[in-house]
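Example S7 (structure tokens).
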């Protein structure tokens, strides 16, 4: 019997108990994952043990291994990276693994208790020109900084759906942050998504790139633009929401598996029937709202560089509002002098 057949035979025996302590480096190391299964897993976008650990048995259905074996594989992947039932005090330890990334503005950081968190999705929504993409660019630079400067010593993955990513801005911002711009641009992995399906495909196949490049920030700018333009009309609403939901869950799974910050941007729609409060709301409705853990609404203060950011929803923080500005240097605080001269000028 050839070695290959031997491995394939092993695939028939999911009962072979994976050792809970075992560290599997590659998906092929997991008992029961032979060449055929591993190829199918890779075709589905599961290239790493980390992403497999976040899969559901249903998602592995197309692999054709059967539910029981799918469970066994996922369980093995989970135990390999230490995701399982845990006691609440251990949960606390897990929370301590949450890292924070600075936005570049202390005021903006303040409304999110010190910076954007890893393991969850942060959403910036607002009208065009409100600064969503500018924040995304700045985060790509900041993530490269050391922790003492609010960074994560990591790289960024930028999924650009509107072709608004500008290297010139990265160069300006990284110079201002004291980084070598040539090095800084090397730490940004860029992908343009041409359609919503392509956008989904990119995330579904991102795990290996994330792992290999020490990605600590995943950006999808914009989350909803393609979906909004492709799925038009009432009858398209349900399929659109279903796809968006799947896409967001993939993003959460990646953010958890690799302890990265995940940021999405979103446009707003006018609410025709609102008389009080904000007459706009973000695209994507409840699906996007429930899956983005932190939502920040951005708007222009007046003409000029100043923007207002409001924390609209967070699992544990109170609503808050702060101002910052978008300048050639990037995202910055509005100085006290600027604040007072502004109010004097009024
Ligand atoms: N080099 C720069 N110097 C100063 N301000 C800049 C610079 N580049 C961009 N800006 C500011 O950022 C604004 C654009 O913001 P941004 O691209 O983040 O908008 P957005 O919220 O992503 O909008 P959209 O919904 O269209 O994607 C410009 O209108 C300008 O005010
Ligand atoms: Mg933009």
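Recovered sequence:
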């Amino acid at each position: 019997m050839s070695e290959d057949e031997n491995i394939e035979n092993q695939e028939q025996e999911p009962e072979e108990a994976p050792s809970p302590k075992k560290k599997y480096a590659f998906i092929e190391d997991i008992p029961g994952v032979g060449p055929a299964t591993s190829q199918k897993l890779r075709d589905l976008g599961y290239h790493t043990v980390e992403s497999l650990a976040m899969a559901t048995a249903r998602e592995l259905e197309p692999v054709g291994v059967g539910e029981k074996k799918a469970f066994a594989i996922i369980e093995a992947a989970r135990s390999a990276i230490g995701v399982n039932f845990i006691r609440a005090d251990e949960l606390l330890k897990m929370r301590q693994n949450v890292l924070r990334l600075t936005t570049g503005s202390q005021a903006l950081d303040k409304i999110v208790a010190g910076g954007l968190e890893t393991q969850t999705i942060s959403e910036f929504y607002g009208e065009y020109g409100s600064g969503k993409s500018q924040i995304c660019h700045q985060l790509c630079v900041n993530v490269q900084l050391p922790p003492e400067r609010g960074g994560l010593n990591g790289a960024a993955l930028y999924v650009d759906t509107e072709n608004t990513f500008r290297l010139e801005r990265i160069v300006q911002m990284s110079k201002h942050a004291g980084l070598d711009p040539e090095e800084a641009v090397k730490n940004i992995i860029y992908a343009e998504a041409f359609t919503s399906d392509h956008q989904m495909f990119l995330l579904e196949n991102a795990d290996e790139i994330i792992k290999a490049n020490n990605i600590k920030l995943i950006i999808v700018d914009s989350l909803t633009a393609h979906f909004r333009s492709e799925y038009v009309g009432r009858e398209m609403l349900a399929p659109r929401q279903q796809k968006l939901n799947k896409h967001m869950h993939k993003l959460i799974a990646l953010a958890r598996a690799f302890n990265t910050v995940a940021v999405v941007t979103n446009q707003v729609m006018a609410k025709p029937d609102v008389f009080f409060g904000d007459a706009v709301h973000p695209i994507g409705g409840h699906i996007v709202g429930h899956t983005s853990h932190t939502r920040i609404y951005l708007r222009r203060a007046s003409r000029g560089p100043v923007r207002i950011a409001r924390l609209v929803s967070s699992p544990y923080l109170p609503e808050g509002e702060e101002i910052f500005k978008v300048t050639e240097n990037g995202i910055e605080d509005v100085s006290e002098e600027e604040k007072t001269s502004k109010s004097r000028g009024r």
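Notes on this example. The chain is about 40% helix and 20% strand.
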